[in-house]
Amino acid sequence: MGVQLTRGYSSDAAISPFLPMRRTVAKAERAGLSVGDYLDRYSAEPGATAATVEAMLRLGGLEKGVERVCEIGPGSGRYAAPVLTALQPRSYEVYETAADWIRYLRKEFPQLTVQPADGHTLRHTATESVDLVHSHKLFNYIPFVATLGYLAEMARVVRPGGVVAFDVMTEDCLNDAATTTWLDHPDRGIIYSLTPRRWALDFLARRGLDLLGNHFVPLSGMRTELLVFRRR
């Protein structure tokens, strides 16, 4: 019937479930694709994940290896995999709230350190301790107040000279095609959360983060904006 029963453990909108792991993995296997390639085809376009990671590393000047990386909402690990390959960090910690994807990550990426996640903070990561903290395809779906908390936490945990990177849906991502789709199908548009670009830049600048550059990322016929910062 297309229904999957999962155990719920929170009513917090910031950690509501997204794509179910077993169904997603099964669909990828039937399509003869890796989970990452399947998700690119499902919600973006082929090669979008690789292009996003390449842009993040290039804009952040991260061609060389780093010591510590932290990722918020890794899900299937499709962004973690190329980052691990490119940077070969000594430590890679993740904050994930979906229990099924946590099991998948522990099996597929045993080198990851899975931190206890509350959907709002990076409380188990020390201040000014990581070289790169990043998040992808998450802040577009969670409540704005949860994104606000995560941005403050990313600024807290990154070391001076380190890089913060994430994608959000800003006003620069909107066009007539996207808004027409939302008006015609409000059940689709209601899942997205917008982040004011100017506000985000000012908010992070006050916390010592300078914008290095941006890159637009396709998402379900629209796009999000990857923003990359360096901590002063």
TrEMBL record:
Alphabetized InterPro entries for the sequence: SAM-dependent_MTases_sf (IPR029063)
Source taxon at top rank: Bacteria
SUPFAM superfamilies, alphabetized: S-adenosyl-L-methionine-dependent methyltransferases
CDD domains, per the entry: AdoMet_MTases
Descriptive protein name: Methyltransferase family protein
Organism, as annotated: Kribbella lupini
